[in-house]
Amino acid sequence: MTRLSVNINKIATLRNARGGNIPDVLKAAIDCERFGAQGITVHPRPDERHIRYQDAREIRPVVKTEFNIEGYPSTKFVSQVITLYQQVILKISNISPSCTNRIIFFHQPGG
After folding, report:
1. Helix (H, G, I), strand (E, B) or coil at 42
2. Is the pLDDT assigned to residue 12 strictly greater than 80?
């Protein structure tokens, strides 16, 4: 069971606000694993103001632990995730009426 999965959305938010590629989201994902994280989590939004879909495509091949993608189950989101994975574990949560539905994809290494 994964004990620590680091959400790197805020790193992407800083990068996007600054322009360019600093801080580097890909390097952050690699470093988080190197420092002991057992998973990386991203939550791409439709407006891509945090993690972008391109980031997820670049991060996916380098993550050696669990890679979680969370997001609103729009057609674009689901199609992007399906292109990243052949097999996923799917969890749809609706915590309360005031929360939006979320779809969460978990990928275990070797799966």
Report:
1. strand
2. yes
